[in-house]
Design brief:
- The structure is a single chain.
- Strands 3, 5, 6, 8, 9, 16 and 17 form a seven-stranded mixed beta sheet that branches. Strands 12-11-10-13-14-15 form a six-stranded parallel beta sheet, with helices on both faces.
- The chain contains eight helices and 17 strands.
- 26% of the residues lie in helices and 31% in strands.
- The chain is an alpha/beta fold.
- NADP nicotinamide-adenine-dinucleotide phosphate binds next to α1, α2 and α3.
């Protein structure tokens, strides 16, 4: 099959021929229709995860998938060949990713059915970014009218987190570069997101909107220490970048390092919200599997929202 692979890290992915995987006991073989790019994939290619996870080369990149169950490993219950499914590759090693024609995934974790009304394109970009966004918002649990600063709002996780926080009644302050980024973020909800320019004096811009500090921060990009300093006393922060309790010791704030937990329950909730229209899936460009190297280049150059990749 064709797949986007790395022979070593750091390196840029290339599209090459590799063996089609076979499902082991408890696994599904999924024919991938759509995958996407995530910060995780860029970090893998850059070699940032080399000392954190086992790498199996040639390493197929890609966390998100949507497609059709092609075969079942021994002992799989609850799924049948032909089921439309989506989710996140959650294996404890890197190598069998979803930017490929086929992927094997555990039937018990990181996969859910695509409901009626959700396009395979949207399902294929929703898994990891949606889970990280939902888990991050849940971690700070914003109340109605609380102010939430979202740093990294232009990315895949951020564009979804802005919508989830706004839907809970929070007043969202979102970071973006001026121009296309600011326009993109401002258009994510109908409830009036206030946009601040992270390339300028972020501290002054946020203080102008929230003189006593913000109630909560989502740290999806930028300097965690600076962002923690923008919280009011007792404020809460959630970080997808590993900024946790140790980083705020001695300060009157809490910080939670989020690890996206792509349970079937979370995936099912995200899909239902996308079907109802509560969550708009922010796909801004679509590439073919053969164009994956271009998609990585675009991602690294500052793409907005989610980039989809059609794999078969
Ligand atoms: N812990 C977990 O389980 C988990 C799960 C999912 C994601 N993550 C991590 O969460 C982060 C976000 O993921 P993603 O997929 O949304 O990545 P992404 O699409 O690359 O989004 C990051 C965004 O942050 C913007 N940005 C860069 N520097 C910034 C700054 N100083 N202040 C504010 N915004 C800034 C970028 O804009 P420009 O491109 O214009 O610079 C980009 O739009 C990544 O680091 C990813 O690895 C972790």
């Amino acid at each position: 099959m064709r797949a986007a692979t790395l022979e070593s890290v750091p390196a840029s992915p290339v599209v090459s021929d590799v063996d089609t995987p076979r499902p082991e006991a408890g696994e599904l073989l999924v024919k991938v229709a759509v995958s996407s790019l995530n910060g995780f994939d860029a970090a893998t290619a850059a070699g940032f995860l080399r000392d954190m996870m086992e790498h199996r080369f040639p390493l197929i990149v890609g966390k998100d998938f949507a497609g059709t169950v092609e075969a079942l490993g021994a002992g799989v219950d609850g799924f049948a060949v032909g089921d439309a499914v989506f989710g996140v590759v959650m294996k404890p090693f890197l190598g069998t990713g979803a930017l490929a024609e086929y992927v094997t995934v555990s039937a018990g974790y990181g996969v859910a059915r695509i409901p009626e009304g959700l396009s395979v394109r949207d399902a294929g970009v929703l898994g990891l970014a949606g889970t990280a966004a939902l888990d991050s918002v849940d971690a700070v649990d914003p109340r109605k009218d609380e102010t939430v600063l979202i740093s990294g709002a232009t990315g895949g996780v951020g564009a979804l987190a802005v919508q989830i926080a706004a839907a809970r009644g929070a007043r969202v302050i979102a970071t973006a570069r001026p121009g296309a980024g600011a326009d993109f973020v401002a258009g994510l909800t109908d409830s009036g997101v206030r946009v601040v320019d992270f390339t300028g004096d972020l501290d002054a811009q946020v203080r102008a909107l929230a003189p006593d500090g913000v109630d909560a921060v989502l740290h999806l990009a930028g300097d965690g220490g600076l962002l923690a300093g923008l919280l009011r006393p007792g404020g809460r922060m959630a970080s997808t970048l590993g900024f946790g309790p140790d980083a705020v010791q001695g300060q009157d704030v809490t910080a939670h390092a989020v690890m996206a937990d792509a349970s079937a329950q979370t995936l099912t909730k995200l899909a239902a919200d996308a079907v109802s229209g509560a969550l708009r899936v922010p796909v801004t460009a679509t590439y073919t599997l053969e164009q994956t190297p271009e998609a990585f280049a675009a991602f690294g150059a500052g793409a907005l929202g989610k980039l989809a990749v059609t794999c078969s």
